[in-house]
Amino acid sequence: RSMLPPKSMISAAMPKILVGISVSMLIVAAVFGVLNSVRVKGLHLDLANAIAARDAAEHGRMAQAKEFKSRQTKIPGTSAKSADAESKAAKVEADLAKVQKEKADLQTRLEANQAEIASLQKRAEEVGSKPAEANPGAPSTVELQAELDDARRQRDGAEREKVFLSETIRKAQERSTQLEEEKKRRAAAGKIGVRGAVLAVNQAYNFVVLSLGGRQGVEPNSEMLVVRDGTLIGKIRISSVEPATAIGDIVTSSLARGVQVQPGDIVIYAGTNS
């Protein structure tokens, strides 16, 4: 006897099987639909967060730039001191050029004076050695003596002028040397007072990133004064320098208790500690 179920039983069970398969597929589709919906919502949320973070960063950057400009204008005497320093440097340059020109003119006069002295000396010697002529039309001894005395007076006057010119040249040289030294001092001190801002602060490792570097004359081991709202709050010592930025260590001993260096604080170049 055959053990297979009768065809009538299979036919009767087939609709139930198909319904079960359909329900299972619908459940699976619903699950995938829910998962996709959650994933899409997550992507939308991530996108919204990214846009919000970008906008916040942009607003923060603009606010920091605005605050930097505001703080910079609050530093007393910034523009006036800079203009005064430039004016003094220009005056030193002009004075130096003037003194050097005067020195050159005096040197030219001195050389001409020395040539005149030599000429007068030669003339005096010629007059002194010229014998009195028996010819009635020739100069007499008295006339020759007068001519000799005149030549000697002119020579003595030229000698005095030579002494005066030499002394004037010496003073001009001293003045020129002083102006050269002052020019060098100003060139060395020209970097002092250069201003920038704190771009970032790492409190964990106690260092900052600054908005000025080698192009502004910043050097390693130099000091920066940190200013906030026109008040000195601390110091930074430069550890490394790039063309447009620099990294410096915060001198913690220079900070008041509870005060921390913040992005946007003004920094002023104070010079090199050698």
Walk me through the structure.
The protein is an alpha+beta fold. The protein has 3 domains: 1-74; 79-189, Helix Hairpins, CATH 1.10.287; 195-272, Rod shape-determining protein MreC, domain 1 (Thrombin, subunit H, Beta Barrel), CATH 2.40.10. It is built from 3 helices and 6 strands. The chain has helices spanning 7-74, 78-129, 141-189, and strands spanning 195-202, 207-210, 222-228, 231-241, 246-251, 266-272. The chain has a 6-stranded antiparallel beta barrel. The model has no long low-confidence stretch (mean pLDDT 75).
Describe this protein with a few key phrases.
single chain, 274 residues, alpha+beta, Helix Hairpins, Thrombin, subunit H, 3 domains, 6-stranded antiparallel β-barrel, 6 strands, 62% helix
Write the layout of secondary structure elements.
Layout: H1 7-74, H2 78-129, H3 141-189, E1 195-202, E2 207-210, E3 222-228, E4 231-241, E5 246-251, E6 266-272
Antiparallel strand pairs: 1-2, 1-6, 2-5, 3-4, 3-6, 4-5
Order of helices and strands: HHHEEEEEE
Strand order of the largest sheet: 1-2-5-4-3-6
Largest sheet: 6 strands, antiparallel, barrel
Give start-end ranges of low-pLDDT stretches. Answer: none
Q: What's the CATH class label of the largest domain?
A: Mainly Alpha
- DSSP strand tally: 6
Distance between the termini: 112 Å
Radius of gyration: 47 Å
CATH architectural category of the largest domain? Orthogonal Bundle
Shape: rod-shaped
Q: Compute the number of helices.
A: 3
Would you tell me the overall average pLDDT? 75
Relative helix content = 55-70%
Question: Structural class of the secondary structure composition?
Answer: alpha+beta
